[in-house]
């Protein structure tokens, strides 16, 4: 009977066949241990010389790392294994022998591993991170589907920029200028006026020449947009959503979190509501902590966000940023013209901003004024302005960066390991 590693718990005591790769092996005179992986998980196969034909034992001893095989054996429970099961091997059939596999069990440098990313993905820790990423995606769809959102797919090629063109990849769209999208937000606002509550999930691009552990050139964003939702309503959705995906990973990725040595107790306490601090108070806090390099009107850098986050063991909202450092579309504070109704959600443990969100301007005249102040061409935003002409309503939304969120939940230091094939400042291969 053919099965997969993740399904062996259904076949305890039965003989099964698994198509797998040899992740590692070790052997003594009379027994061989095969570390098998099939994409669904990892399991140990035990080959006892006295219990199998000589050809099977010799195949088990000589098989090389990453050789593909069909392994047949009896499924046994094994309390010593984190997975809980092992395979008493009765047969080994080599499909394709791998020769001189470049990533051995020894330590390798980061650049070498990144050059071999197509192979590094096979390792146990990288596999665990990708499974956690998959769970975050699965839970995202569950959360928004269960809460009445419709998924809408905004275009990747756009003729306008939500946050200016300075960090966009420009291209030619026949005889017009076009850009790779840095956000689907403007289109999601149009979708919200048609469908009420919507979300998108797709790639975004930032031509930002940054080499920090928090930045990618191409990354994935989840961007909900909600009609009739004001600033406070928006924050509630954010904290409910983040709590939901974290607890889904805690529940469904126990084995993967264990492989990564993640402190699960830090994740288990992530439950809404989240603490909040205003931008004003954050500046005062930082100055009191000795950060003399920042003053009111400056944006926060990674050290500032980390210092604020260290005061909490939960994600924290920083609210009401100065108008001058935020995009044109954010709704002004009703009682102050120097700040806007926005918030960034900062993850604990030094992982920085994972969400940026705001209430959007819904007044036509004010939005037109903002576009002019930012020197944005009116023709390119004509359709966006028209959303404020025909039944405009208060509305809000946010964007969650998938890779930063996965890095935080999995405890991975660098976002380059939170995406299958990262695009970095100096990396377009593989």
TrEMBL record:
Compartment(s) where it occurs, according to its Swiss-Prot or TrEMBL record: Cytoplasm
- List UniProt keywords, sorted A-Z: Aminoacyl-tRNA synthetase, ATP-binding, Cytoplasm, Ligase, Nucleotide-binding, Protein biosynthesis
Enzyme class (EC, first level):
ligase
Residues annotated as domain Aminoacyl-transfer RNA synthetases class-II family profile:
130-430
Stated family: Belongs to the class-II aminoacyl-tRNA synthetase family.
The protein depicted here goes by the name: Asparagine--tRNA ligase
Domain of life, per UniProt, equals Bacteria
Q: Name one Pfam family in it.
A: tRNA-synt_2
Assembly and partners?
Homodimer.
For this protein, the record's PROSITE patterns field holds: AA_TRNA_LIGASE_II
Q: Which GO MF terms does the UniProt record name? A: ligase activity
Q: Which reaction does it catalyse?
A: tRNA(Asn) + L-asparagine + ATP = L-asparaginyl-tRNA(Asn) + AMP + diphosphate + H(+)
Question: Which EC number(s) does the record attach to this protein?
Answer: 6.1.1.22
């Amino acid at each position: 009977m053919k099965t997969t590693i993740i399904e062996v718990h259904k076949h305890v005591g039965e003989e099964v066949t698994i198509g797998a790769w040899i992740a590692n092996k070790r052997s003594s005179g009379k027994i061989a241990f095969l570390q098998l992986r099939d994409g669904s998980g990892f399991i140990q196969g035990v080959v006892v010389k006295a219990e199998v034909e000589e050809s099977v034992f010799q195949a088990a001893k000589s098989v090389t790392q990453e050789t593909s095989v069909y392994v047949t054996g009896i499924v046994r429970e094994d309390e010593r294994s984190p997975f809980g099961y092992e395979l008493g091997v009765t047969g080994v059939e080599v499909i394709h022998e791998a020769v001189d596999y470049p990533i051995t069990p020894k330590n390798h440098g980061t650049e070498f591993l990144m050059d071999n990313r197509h192979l590094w993905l096979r390792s146990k820790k990288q596999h665990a991170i990708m499974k956690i990423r998959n769970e975050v995606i699965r839970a995202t769809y569950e959360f928004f589907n269960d809460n009445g959102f419709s998924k809408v797919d905004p275009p990747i090629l756009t003729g306008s920029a939500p946050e200016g063109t300075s960090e966009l990849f420009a291209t030619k769209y026949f005889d017009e200028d076009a850009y790779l999208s840095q956000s689907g937000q403007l289109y999601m606002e149009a979708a919200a006026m048609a469908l009420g509550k919507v979300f998108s999930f797709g790639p975004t691009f930032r031509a930002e020449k940054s080499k920090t552990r928090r930045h990618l050139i191409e990354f994935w964003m989840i961007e909900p947009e909600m009609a009739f939702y004001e600033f406070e309503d928006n924050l509630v959705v954010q904290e409910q959503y983040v709590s939901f995906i974290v607890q889904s990973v805690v529940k469904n990725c126990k084995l993967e979190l264990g492989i990564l040595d993640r402190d699960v107790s830090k994740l288990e306490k992530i439950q809404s509501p989240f603490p909040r601090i205003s931008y004003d108070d954050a500046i005062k806090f930082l100055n009191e902590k000795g950060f003399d390099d920042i003053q009111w009107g400056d944006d926060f850098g990674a050290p500032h966000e980390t210092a604020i986050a260290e005061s909490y063991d939960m994600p924290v909202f920083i609210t009401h940023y100065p108008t001058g450092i935020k995009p044109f579309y954010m709704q002004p504070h009703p009682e102050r013209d120097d700040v806007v109704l926005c918030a960034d959600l900062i993850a604990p443990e030094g992982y920085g901003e994972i969400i940026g969100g705001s209430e959007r301007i819904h007044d036509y005249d004010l939005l037109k004024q903002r576009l002019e102040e930012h020197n944005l061409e009116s023709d390119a935003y004509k359709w966006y302005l028209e959303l404020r002409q025909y039944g405009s309503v208060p509305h809000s939304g946010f964007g969650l960066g998938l890779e930063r969120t996965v890095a935080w939940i999995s405890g991975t230091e660098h976002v380059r390991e939170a995406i299958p094939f990262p695009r970095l400042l100096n990396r377009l291969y593989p």
